[in-house]
Amino acid sequence: MTHRIVVCSTCEGTDGKGFAARLRVALSERRMEFTVQDHDCMSNCARPLSVAFSAPGKATYLFGDIDPAGDLEDTLAFAALYAECADGWIEDARPAGRLRQCLIGRVPG
Hints:
CATH class: Alpha Beta
Mean pLDDT: 93
Number of domains: 1
Helix content: 10-25%
Strand content: 15-25%
Number of strands: 5
CATH architecture: 3-Layer(aba) Sandwich
Radius of gyration: 12 Å
Structural class: alpha+beta
Shape: globular
């Protein structure tokens, strides 16, 4: 299954491209199969940095207010939860730490 993480690369005051690059490296080191893309604008400018998770047949998640300097480990924890869940519907996101407070929405797959 193709899991995808999209990171806004133009959120003002953030380093989206750098966060996406660090995320790629960390996922690879953990042997987690995700494609990480940076995208010019995710139209969530009021809550930078925006990050989305998606996969075919799974719920899609959109997060905002991600701190590129401090939220990498929580983003990786959420990625692990997402990868393990067949439909992407995560009932207990406590292992994702602060990231669960950054959730904007979950769209059924």
